[in-house]
């Protein structure tokens, strides 16, 4: 008798827990396949510490192959599900497609950035949903402080050292708290001109910080943030984002080069294509986490609207605490439906409290309803994270110890560029790479708050073809993107400076429009906004022509000293603010965190 086939989509908190639980329950009596864009589980609650230089990136990633030895890992993104045929179609990281057949399907695809109809946000902001965005923010903040320290103009210095975070929930509060400590440490080593200090602004339309928590913990977090120097503005948000800053809802214009979007999340759009009953973008399931009328289909985590039996008429919120528990219950019910486990059971939960890391020894926590602050809260928070992580505990603890006794290394690695982490994407766990599957080529061409200006390549890179759209737009999952237009010689066609200027504001000269990143140094990119434009490197568009190329120095041994004719010019090295063609890079899925439940203990 053949073994049943179980396919799990997504390896976030829900998917990872489901795969681990099923592996233990079935004991080799079922084929378990886990489909995920990356080969690791990402422990998102510690992501702000990665952005602030406390933890190294690999500390918050747990290898799927090492920790799930009896589960088959398939790298890819689901793009179509045939419910009647019980097949799932996916696209791999290199563009190759595949099909998985199943007897039971568990959807745990997670969530993506939540966008609001605010002008300029999609173009000039970055989210904080995955490892690529954390690495980008770490480099970007470091670069802005370094450029500010070298700037002659006090106005430019102040703009570069102003960082705006929208959303005072768990993520936004932690990013602002850690960010202020990180930049203050940099300035102590390299003081800014005019005695300026980095300025972090935390915005939210809610009346208080951390509105999900009780008033005592909210007041604690607010007090810590203000004491640290964070400009907390409740009842205020962004009305418009521009390359030079943001317009607030109270009418104030804040000059900044950094806009971090932590407003919230929405379910992965994959579930919308199923044509099944939905609840605010989430797939409706019964208390057993099974889709009504589809005995083979289960859903858990952020994509599932799970009835809250503790609060009849409502659904469990989209938090990591619930996603982790969903995964366990869904796995047990899948095994029971196949006759490989006990009886099915509904999902019930008990709120064990929440923790918020505010950096250093400061935190806000209410384990089992007991409100804590200061050092005790910090100890509880870090103890929770070590207990909840399914791996890397010793490495994380070692990094915390080193951070307590050694200064942080504030350096730019240049691994993730602005254009590779657009805010509007259906796959926040994957860094966008030109030429990769399901991506649209985007170019960073300004020094505004962290966004990319799209370089459309449908008509040779002029930005006027039928595929032109706003930065961050991308095809549906699994569908080929615009990629990079190739010439007959196989070299990627690059846009000229004149063509690049078409994506810039009217009247702005192409040669002086500031870019997001410096042109020289480890990160590449463009010059400071206040200074003159650096001269392009030889052989690049707008710079001195390379030898033996049309328009450059005549090729030697040619009659009359004219350039060689009818010879294809070698492809110029792309400018640093343009993405070179290459394969996809896939950093991982994301979720938020709350304290562990009883079932988590002993499983880690």
Descriptive overview:
The protein is an alpha/beta fold. The chain is built from twelve helices and 27 strands. It has a five-stranded parallel beta sheet with strand order 5-2-1-9-21, covered by helices on one side. Strands 13-12-11-17 form a four-stranded parallel beta sheet. Strands 6-7-8 form a three-stranded antiparallel beta sheet, with no helix packed on it. Strand 19 and strand 20 form a beta hairpin. Helix 1 packs parallel to helix 9 and helix 5 runs antiparallel to helix 6. It is globular, with a radius of gyration of 25 Å. The two termini are 33 Å apart. The relative contact order is 0.16.
Rg over CA atoms: 25 Å
**Largest sheet at a glance?**
5 strands, parallel
What is the structural class? alpha/beta
Q: How confident overall, as mean pLDDT?
A: 78
Shape: globular
Strand order of the largest sheet: 5-2-1-9-21
What helical percentage do the residues reach?
Answer: 10-25%
Low-confidence stretches: 437-578, 580-604
Count of individual beta strands? 27
* Terminal residue distance: 33 Å
Beta percentage is: 15-25%
How many H/I helices? Answer: 12
Topology, element by element:
Elements: E1 5-9, H1 13-26, E2 31-36, E3 40-42, H2 47-51, E4 61-63, H3 64-67, E5 72-75, E6 77-82, E7 87-91, E8 97-101, E9 104-107, E10 111-113, H4 121-124, H5 131-150, H6 154-160, E11 162-166, H7 170-189, E12 199-204, H8 215-228, E13 231-234, E14 238-242, E15 245-248, E16 253-255, E17 258-261, E18 265-267, E19 278-279, E20 282-284, E21 297-299, E22 304-305, H9 320-337, E23 355-357, E24 363-365, E25 372-373, H10 374-388, H11 393-405, E26 442-443, E27 453-454, H12 497-500
Parallel strand pairs: 1-2, 1-9, 2-5, 9-21, 11-12, 11-17, 12-13, 20-22
Antiparallel strand pairs: 3-4, 6-7, 7-8, 10-18, 14-15, 15-16, 19-20, 23-24, 24-25, 26-27
Helix pairs in contact: 1-9, 5-6, 5-7, 7-8
